[in-house]
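A favour between colleagues. Tell me how you read the following sequence-structure pair.

===
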Amino acid sequence: MKADDEHARGAGDGDILGEHDTSVLSGRTNEELAATGTIRADHAARERVASKRRSKPKAPTAPPGRKGILPPFVEPALATLVQAAPSGKDWLFEIKHDGYRMQARIDGGKVKLSTRSGLDWTAKFKPIAQALKALKLPSALVDGEIVVETASGVSSFSALQQALTTGEIGQAVFYAFDLLYLDGRDLRALALTERKALLQQALDDAGPTSRVRFSEHLDADGDAMARHACRLGLEGIIAKKASAPYRSGRSDHWRKVKCTSSQEFVIAGYMPSTSAPRAVGSLILGVYDGEDLVHVGRVGTGFTNAVSRALWTQLDPLRAEAAPFREALPPLAKRNAKWVEPKLVCEATLRGWTADGQVRHASFKTLRPNVDPQAVIRGDASRPSRSRSKTGTASDVRLTHPDRVMWDDVGLTKQGLFAFYAEIADHILPHIVDRPLSLLRCPDGIGSCFYQKHGWAGMDARHIHTAKAGSENVVVIRDRDGLLALVQSSVLEIHPWGATADEPDKPDRLVFDLDPGEGVGWEQLVTGANEVRERLHALGFAAFVKTTGGKGLHVVVPIEPKAGWDEAKTFSKRLATEMAKDCSDLYVATVAKAARPGRIYVDYLRNQRGATAVSAFSTRARPGAPVSVPVTWNELPSLGSGDRFTVDTLANRLGAMRGDPWTAFSGAARPLDDGRAVRRRPAEAR
């Protein structure tokens, strides 16, 4: 308890530092000390740093903020989770980064990076500390986030964790979004807009290749920005009150709208891995309701092989005889379970909750060692998803080794892939049902793959079928269970023919595969896709575009199944060849790789009998678990890469979409012989 004594000063009293400005040690004022050349060591260090700064900040008419001592650490401001972005003129909106919150303290050339809880992580991110030191700021306290971004510019928490595990953090960058202290002035009482303006000015010396970046903001429609962020596969947005001071702790001045709901859970036990010894297959989760721990289900994906083993090492010493839950569990929920003392907390993403209070489609994200298990309760605020499959969730397909890791870099297991396809089945099935399929099977995950075009021993004949395509035996599926049976067979890529199994010699779509050569950027690739589109439109055909999940793009053309494969190949070859002739410095239509650097290979060979192209909404057996996704022509320039969307982000995109980019695909089919002859375009039209 505190009480005022005779030295207490009232609200109207003057500043004691202004009235008593002499040093307790020397009895002299700062001015007297400066006149004799005496200066504090830390102040001298700051002056040396300031003298080396390339760009000098503009002197304000009045010093911003109030004079104060550089704090050793400030409890960070935290955002409140909400379902919708606020409206009004007093709000700014920033992209929500998916990384580690970090506070950078700069003092006379010395930099310290502190986590949200105050832990010193400078040694973990030395390149970031060096980049901050290079800014030559005398003293500052900067709030931000350290992330690792994919090729398309999306921050990836799993990539950041992997970088920390391996020590290869060369791709990490620091996004600065607030400035709490600068050059002897405490800025926390200033409005956010003033602090961000000072921050942007302080980062003037950060060049385009710097690891330190200013976190931009918009003051536009927050709900539209949140929807757009989810469509692009981002984490979400943060809404911040423009006129508000910096307030430590959680407040309503900062609000977050997340594309994917995440929640902290108490780890109550685990299921041992069925595919690796001394490893965790899934975690048994709980949340507190008062004094009682309530069972809310399991999370069985999101672990890399290394994380799975590390979790076992941490959990095994905590083994307990009985489950720590308030109520007894049904036999199926506790079969093979290993119970532990409820001392560890993890964070997991989830799509929502079932009617009986169990997590739906949860994926492990990280351990939260600084969170008190007793404080973990259920949180319900999340952005609603509209991507759930309309075909239902029940299936008689059973997985063997559901905890087998198929993409080790992101920890995606067979169970996680099963849940992904169960959720987006309505989107992929129209592209693969009753078509001959070429399947990429990877029994032990990516790196152990082979193509399968015919039936195989052990194939689930209830759901995966063989059929005749002329004289050839092919594999087909007919429904959602067939799709899920492919997961059980470790199929990581699905490549359909451009014709149905009933009419295998009458293609109903053409695919132009644009493969960028070395040195070709995204902007050039988008230009190439639009070139194909314009030429097709000139011939009377509709053109639709999708990412490939790799580097390239697919331009897909619906046609009526009347012409044969010879006509399809002739048509597509002629268009690709004419593009290469018209712009030989941009396009090539030959397979030879020596001709591709700096050019786009317009691959027309997908349009012949037996050839395939990866299906829309199929995963790819590549790092990050990318997905081939139909997109609109308007959004194409903003994607940045053909592997923009992943298993982790696709459901968010589908939930935020107001329509299907390919909704007119089937109705746009034209007979192939309706197209006029492909002629070289006049030079002025290029």
Observations:
- The longest strand covers residues 261-272.
- The chain has a mean pLDDT of 89.
- Residues 77-257 form a domain with the D-amino Acid Aminotransferase; Chain A, domain 1 fold (CATH 3.30.470.30).
- The chain has 15 helices and 32 strands.
